[in-house]
Amino acid sequence: MQKKDYRHERSKYSLFPIMCRLYKAAFTECPVRMLVYSLVLFANGVIQVVITYGTELFFDCVSLGAREREMSSAIIISFLFLMAAILASHILNGCDNYLGTSVHVVLIGKFEKRMHKKAVKLDPALFEDTEFLDNINKAFQGSGVSGCTFVLEAFMVVMFSQVPYMILMSSYLYTRKPILSICIFLVFVPVVISQYLRIHVFAKLEDETVPCRREYACYHECVTGREYFKETRMLGAYRFFSGLIRETIEKINGRAWKCYGKMAGLEILMRSITLLGYAGVLLLLVYYVLNGSIGVGAFAAVFSSIAVMFETIESAVGQQLGGAFEKMGMVTNYVRFLDMEEMRGEEAAVDYSKGIQAHNVSFSYKGSEEMAVKNASLKIRNGETLAIVGENGAGKSTLVKLLIGSYRPDQGEVRIGQVNTENAKMQCYQRKISGVFQNYQKYKMTLEENIIISASGEQKPDKVKRILEDVDVDMNGTDYPKGLDTVLSTEFGGTDISGGQWQRVAIARGMYKEHEVIILDEPTAAIDPIEEYALYHKFKAMAKDKTAILVTHRMGSCKIADRIVVMDKGQIIEEGTHEELMNKNGKYREMYAAQAQWYAD
């Protein structure tokens, strides 16, 4: 059974099935362009055979006219026919180039869009796995300029232009001398085999170099990135990162040179056989014309076209298919990414008034033997403000992601309203859930765009201004010279704002989305405890009548919560109000006492 599955896997991701999938996807995205481009490619292949036939006809007419010593109408007609075919060839080449570029540009965006749509349907827990991150990197390489669009274009040129040309040309040669058509194809069999081997060689190279490319991008960003530049310069860390970059490049180049060297030796041998075959066909052609087996017109036509045919076959096999085979590793990774299993679930209407319940929930990250959350049970009432506290690494953020259904538990169940997150689509139960997380993003866009990104389908400037005022963002101050239109990045002619201002913008972004549940997962970790305490009080007022979950390792901010949950090593160890937990003389009191000086009046 395993053998059968393995064979199915291999056939599913072999060259022809993948090419058919890409062509079908491209045709779905831009049917008119693809249809016209396919027809132009086919016509371009056919016209080359017409030129060959026109050349034979013209030389036969000229030869006959030379013997009769007169300019016949047949010569003029054959000449005009040949010129018309050549003109048509040039026109079709121009159309080919234009349409090819047009399709190429359109499909780059379309293929990347398919990848983005797929990414949002995958289990968010996968994004914590380094192997999955490598797969995304490989898939992105496959979706770009040198991936799917390049391979698809090569496939179309070969299948719609060069294959029809070679079939028709072989038929033409067969009618003159059968052995000519047979010899041409036999000569190129070794070259086809060598190019096919490129798939496996370069697929292996792609898998080996992806982690190195991610390392290189990271080190390069540390040297040149705006966020890292000041610290790198101040610490004198350039030499350190430069050494890491050099080592990474050497790894990539070493593996690439080994791969290219292996293929170079094989291709030299195969191309030598091709050259001998080309010489043999020409000698055979001379022999046939000398013994009268073919006429002068056929000799001239075949002689002039055989170089074109060899060039076409060389282009099809060596350049088009060769390049495609080299990139097939990238494209296969892209297709495999699109085939990844999505988070399953059914449509469901969520009644948020029933709160959130977790029952005996356990969860571990892929590749980790330890449970990030162990046997946690919790019920959050509708409209309740709950604080989850604990030291760094206690499992607070993981528990929150389980409670809002971003992660699905390995054991136990989570219900949002009456809906089990295991059985429903994520967009159903997260439609009215918003949040601000510790690693919030600083989008290099206008202030207004930074807010409405959480609900881009609506434009409510008054609502934006009200929420910004609630979180103490002064749009009339020097930080925002153009108000809502201020670009929050000096890279795009805007301005830089402080970390505290960014945190307020991030909270406003989370509050802007219509929600019944709101999460604050330590977005204020970079500011001092007193300012955090004040900001949490504002958040409490803004989240009135909503279910709110606060995550923090600072104890002073917990007082605003209706209830506090204490976590340690993935387990819920205490639960109650601030006063109740202080009276228990447990972990909460210990942590609060350790931080008491921060909140002293």
Give a description of the structure.
It is a multi-pass membrane protein. InterPro entries: AAA+_ATPase, ABC1_TM_dom, ABC1_TM_sf, ABC_transporter-like_ATP-bd, ABC_transporter-like_CS, P-loop_NTPase, Type_1_exporter. GO terms for molecular function: ABC-type transporter activity; ATP binding; ATP hydrolysis activity; ATPase-coupled lipid transmembrane transporter activity. Strand 4 (411-416) and strand 5 (419-420) form a beta hairpin. Helix 3 (31-68) packs antiparallel against helix 4 (73-119). This protein has helices at 2-12, 15-29, 31-68, 73-119, 130-143, 148-176, 178-224, 226-235, 238-290, 296-338, 396-403, 426-429, 447-452, 461-470, 499-512, 529-542, 578-584, 587-594; strands at 356-363, 373-380, 385-389, 411-416, 419-420, 433-437, 517-521, 547-552, 563-568, 571-576. It has a six-stranded mixed sheet with strand order 6-7-8-3-9-10, sandwiched between helices. With 601 residues, the protein is an alpha/beta fold.
